[in-house]
Amino acid sequence: MKLNFKAIVTASMITAASIASAHAMEDAEDAIEFRQSVFHLVGAHTGQMGDMIKGKKDFDAAEFQYRADSMAALAKMGLEGFTYPGSDKGDTKAKPAVWEDMDGFKTKMNKFVSDTAALSAAAKSGNLDTIKPAFMEAAKNCKACHTDYKNR
């Protein structure tokens, strides 16, 4: 339990710092750092939930709910880091396709927001059979966006 509390506090602090930095973006480098922070946290939460879905980690409904809620909040922040002028240059793995097809990218990001909101709602059930399809849909959308818009 102590580890979970520590993880929650750490994630909350990082999220708060990310939110603050979003409003303090002064240049493209700040925007890139902001979006990388957001997606790093998304990946951490996704990994922990994925381990529960796959049975690699015991399913804990309360932890899953926390992670799903966090992911839904973070999903709303992701697009912001791509809209700052010049954030297509620099230390980024984002493909030029993000800016060449911003409408398509925004569509996928908006679907990610709705998918993670649905995952958060499904997690409230505490039932893995209800949660799994919502998780798989959100994960499928993540992968599709990475395929189209992220360099490995």
Q: Short summary of the structure?
A:
With 152 residues, this protein is mainly alpha-helical. The protein has helices at residues 2-23, 28-54, 61-75, 97-100, 102-123, 128-149. It has one domain: Cytochrome c/b562 (Four Helix Bundle (Hemerythrin (Met), subunit A), Up-down Bundle).
Which descriptor suits the 3D outline? Answer: elongated
Question: From the coordinates shown, what is the CATH architecture?
Answer: Up-down Bundle
Kindly state the number of beta strands: 0
Tally of separate domains = 1
From the 3D structure, determine the CATH topology: Four Helix Bundle (Hemerythrin (Met), subunit A)
Portion of residues within helices: over 70%
SSE class: mainly alpha
Q: Uncertain runs with pLDDT below 50, 5 residues or more?
A: none
- Considering the protein shown, what is the CATH homologous superfamily? Cytochrome c/b562
Largest sheet: none
Q: Give the topology string: H per helix, E per strand.
A: HHHHHH
Beta content comes to under 5%
N- to C-terminal distance: 35 Å
CATH class placement: Mainly Alpha
Q: Number of DSSP helices?
A: 6
Q: Rg from C-alpha positions?
A: 16 Å
Explained architecture:
With 152 residues, this protein is mainly alpha-helical. The protein has 6 helices and no strands. The chain starts with a helix and ends with a helix. The mean pLDDT is 88. Helix 2 (28-54) runs antiparallel to helix 3 (61-75), helix 3 runs antiparallel to helix 5 (102-123) and helix 5 (102-123) runs antiparallel to helix 6.
